[in-house]
TrEMBL record:
PANTHER family to which the protein is assigned, alphabetical: AMIDOHYDROLASE-RELATED DOMAIN-CONTAINING PROTEIN (PTHR43794:SF11), AMINOHYDROLASE SSNA-RELATED (PTHR43794)
Protein name per UniProt: 8-oxoguanine deaminase
CDD domains: ATZ_TRZ_like (cd01298)
Organism: Streptomyces flavalbus
Pfam family, one: Amidohydro_1
GO MF entries: 8-oxoguanine deaminase activity
Keyword terms, alphabetized: Hydrolase
NCBIfam families registered for this protein in UniProt: PRK08203.1
Domain Amidohydrolase-related: 62-406
InterPro entries: Amidohydro-rel (IPR006680), Metal-dep_hydrolase_composite (IPR011059), Metal_Hydrolase (IPR032466), MTA/SAH_deaminase (IPR050287)
Signal peptide annotation: none
EC numbers, comma separated: 3.5.4.32
Keyword presence, Hydrolase: yes
Listed SUPFAM superfamilies: Composite domain of metallo-dependent hydrolases, Metallo-dependent hydrolases
Amino acid sequence: MAADRRIVIENCAIATVDASDTEYPDGYLVIAGNRVESLGPGRAPEGLENVVRRIDATGHLLTPGLVNTHHHYYQWITRGLATDHNLFDWLVALYPTWARIDEPMVYAAARGSLAMMARGGVTTAMDHHYVYPRGSGDLSGAIIRAAHETGVRFTLARGSMDRGEKDGGLPPDFAVEALDDALAATEETVRRHHDASFGAMTQVAVAPCSPFSVSTELMREGAELARRLGVRLHTHGSETVEEEKFCHELFGMGPTDYFESTGWLGEDVWMAHCVHMNDSDITAFARTGTGVAHCPSSNARLAAGIARVPDLLAAGVPVGLGVDGTASNESGELHTELRNALLINRLGAHKEAALTARQALRLGTYGGAQVLGRAAETGSLEPGKLADLVLWKLDTLAHASIADPVTALVLGAAAPVTASFVNGEQIVADGRLLTVDEDEIARATRDEARRLARIAARD
Ligand SMILES: [Zn+2]
């Protein structure tokens, strides 16, 4: 949108998620071009010029757009499998199928994953993709194309695996890359797609899969590569007790010490899960500014445990929320993770003091932006930041009688999205995506899921 064109949103509750958690029970926000220009209580100022649209948002809550910090899009076409397994058994059951993915499958799965999140209020998304079978096509390019078409801000975490079964890892040998190939392809992806500028729509991170599927050399050289190129680092960490045991047996230390020894703690790093952390692990994350992607539904689905989110937050660790791959979280939604984060953490040691509704909203917005290194640009509603924002409809049967709008959003049923904006451009209207055809995507993902199942069954 041209820099001088304005959109005015009025008559809604606003949760800014700024540093002081400023809220307006009845306020306005002005978008100018791709930025938030002003916001506050009451009606928008008189005399604004070039107002191309005025939205009466009565009955709505306006929040920053949601930020997803951990996902694996390709899993969209392997949902509903190995439903009663823990992480390692689930991985061993699914790797042979995942090893057969190709570019059309990954493109369809990425479109499905992105569409599901975007229509539920996600404005900044990421994909941790780490399965690159030989000859499978330009998988990274297909994922980035899908994100561009959906219209969300996007980080591709270019993953890799080089520890196959013959080296004591979990993935089959034909699904892993050689160390040098993985590093070269990752560097090429950064050079082709990473945009470091303010408001970038595409960024790339270096993201070897996990300690149990990646060699120590790939961890170490991946960290060096990311720092040489000036991009962020992402991986899975401390997800299960089995992983902890694996690290002790193989490396003679726990996952956090292993990460530190390979250059993997730092403010340019964020790690998925971080469930099995002791006090000194949490201190190490806080000391180094390492971020965490908390994935409550996936952790529950795979019986991994409850991450110590209240302790991480109290120590000052940046924490965002993640859907995780949809083979371990079939819903693929992020807005419902606000609720799950709050509920699951109350089952942990801190009970009812674990997380408030406001903290859950912060995890899903500002916390996510922090973890992705984008907090100066998005994640809160403040003048000068990008106009990435969502209008949640809270005046229907599901929410109208809930006392407080933020509580309604977090603890109520999944709230309908009346409008979602990225860069001041509307991508969702009345729960439907404006950028892509959901029904066509549903058909394509079903067809590609069936094609993958047929190919995998032949093995
Ligand atoms: Zn994951």
